[in-house]
Each structure stands twice: as structure tokens, then as C-alpha cells.
Sequence to fold (401 residues):
Amino acid sequence: MGMQIGIVGKPNVGKSTFFNATTDAHAEIANYPFTTIDANRGVMYVRKPCPCKGFNVKCTPHNSKCINGTRFVPMEAIDVAGLVPDACKGRGLGNKFLDDLRQADSLIHIVDASGSTDEEGNPCGTGKYDPINDVEFLEKEITYWLNGIIKKSWETVARRCKLEGKKIEKMLEEKLTGLGIREEHIYDSIKKLNLNSENPSKWTDDELLKLSDYVRKVSKPMLIAFNKCDMAPDELLKKADTLKEKGYIVVPTSAEAELALNGAAKKGLIEYEPGSNNFKILKESELTDKQLKGLEFIKTNVLDKFGSTGVQKCIEESVKMLDLIVVYPVEDETHLTDKEGRILPDAYFMPRGSTAKDLAFKVHTDLGERFIRAVDARTHRVVGADNELKDGDVIRIVSDA
Fold:
């Protein structure tokens, strides 16, 4: 699947509930710190318009699902162990957290908007804790972790860079290998901070810390899920505006409401599509008074007030931050089928700027290596190896395999 979104935050803020609400996995949910010890992995889905409507066909999805012309495209999610202060020094499950975080391409930071959990993740009563502290602390922990890796044998690296005439960006990329940090992330950070790349041995500790912080921002973009929004006092909900002013994407979220709606929909009690601002009760006679009251509470305090539970929006905004497009490979551009005869079977995320040949490698290494050309199913025109793909393209790959 390639891309991964990391679900992060301190213990007890609803991370596992959010994860369960977005995936078919069932992480353990309990109201105490460190419930999640091993990183749970699952698949979340992103809504995109399915090409089936435009082509006027009934699709038979294989790696994704289609509901009324909306394609739900898979994206891997990783639910990371809860983070507590000084994790970068190995406190709590700090090392485990940071290790799990390595492969995440972007982060959804679950923050308890109701202010009812302290910095360690223990219950402390609604409105007693400022959720903005969590945003600052999580960033600081990741920045200090990266800084620790960069500073390890830094003098040797800086000296070698000068003596051997090597680019510092390349050397830092090698040092940060396996963390999802690319050379261009480091290059952009050095340029933005106006550091002297010719002589990195002159960089101060403060400049190295700033570099670590900027590398974190560009390599692991972060969205804030303002969770438990239905329980948050108004003065804490307003904190979202403070974060937005600082440039964050903040989404009011109720993971618990999403989980409840998904559960009721799976049992056929209600009709509900993730991301929707409403649901329809199908079997009122099978619902208890408590369940009906619960659904009414969700309708009034979450859907009507915030427009949705926010969970699906978090996923989709994260994909926007990564600037991804969705492409549909087929083996027959006339019937839009694969060799099994399935119509528009697969949907793949690709970084914007990807080419037809990149798609061939994504489908199968052999297809990429033996690529001849591609065909655009909409125009039936031949597409060259370097042709840049567009969001929603339906492409046939021709190879000599």
C-alpha cells in the first residue's frame, strides 16, 4: 500500500477509538494509559468520486469499495503507542512510540478537546487541562528525538562533509534513513533557515535544533483531530481557532460517535455513510430507548453542530497534506476491466507528479521494467512513460511481459 498515516497522541485521548472508527481492526479500548502497547495497523478509506459514474458502468471494486458512485480508497493507518513527556529520553513507551512513528508519512494528532486528561493521560475532570499543551509537547518530543539522531557523531559528519566535498543534505539523509525523511526535506529546511551548507561544522546547537524542528514539519505533516468535541466546553473549543491562526489544520472530531454509527450501520439498524452529516434509522423497533437517545445525542451534539463526526474529514485532509492523486489501472481500456473481468477493480494513491511508468511499477515490478506505453481510457490516446498522471485517470499499461 505504501503510504501510511500515523495516529498519534498521549494515552487516553481516544486514539484507539479513532483508529477503530476508521479501520476494520479492533484495537483494545479502555480508559487507562498504555492500553496500546504494540502499534496496531489497519486500513482506513478515503472518499473519491468513482469513474464508474462518468463511464456509466457498474464497477466491481477489488482493492477498494464503491458506495453510490463514491470510491473508498485504502490507506494504511498505524495506531502508535501513547506518548508521555520525555519520551525522547526513553520514558514510558517513548522508544516504542518513536520507532512506530518512523514509517508514517503524515500524522493525525488526537487531542482531547474536552481537557479531561492531564499531560500523562490520566483523567482529571472536564476542562481542567489546556489541549494546546499537548500539541506543543508532541512536536517537541519528535523534534528532540530527531535532534538526538542528527547530533550523534555530528562533528565527524560535518568534518567529512568539508574534507570530502560531500553535500550535507545527502549525508543527513543517510543518517536519517528509515525515518521517511528525504533529501529534499533536508534541502528545503537548510534553505528556509538560511544555514551555510558549505560549512556545517559552524552550525550551532540552536541551529541544529531549528533544523530538526523544520525537518519534522516538512517530513511528517500533522493534522489536529480535536477529539471529544461533543464534551468540550466552549472556551476549549475556541482553542481550535488559536491553533488555526498558527497554521494548523484542526478538525473537531468525535471518534466515539463515528464508532457508534458504524456499529449501528453494520448491524443494519441505520443507514450511514462515513463522513455524512446525517443517518437514517431503518429498524426503530429493534433499538432500545438507550440506543435511540444515544443516536439523538449524536445527531444534535455532533452532526448538527459540527457537520460530521470529523473522523472521515481527518483522513481526507491528511491525504491532501500529502498531495496524493488516485489512479485506476485497467488491462482493457475499452471495457475498463482487469484479466478477471472486474470493472475498474483497483484504485491506487500516487504522489502528484507521478508518471505512467511510476504507475506500472506500483502495480508490479515486472510491468514497470517491461513498460512499453500506456493508454488513457477516457481519450484512448497513447500516453508516454514520462506523462504526468492526473487525479482520477483510468490507465491501461502495455508491456512486453
Residues 4-39+80-133+221-318 form a domain with the Rossmann fold fold (CATH 3.40.50.300).
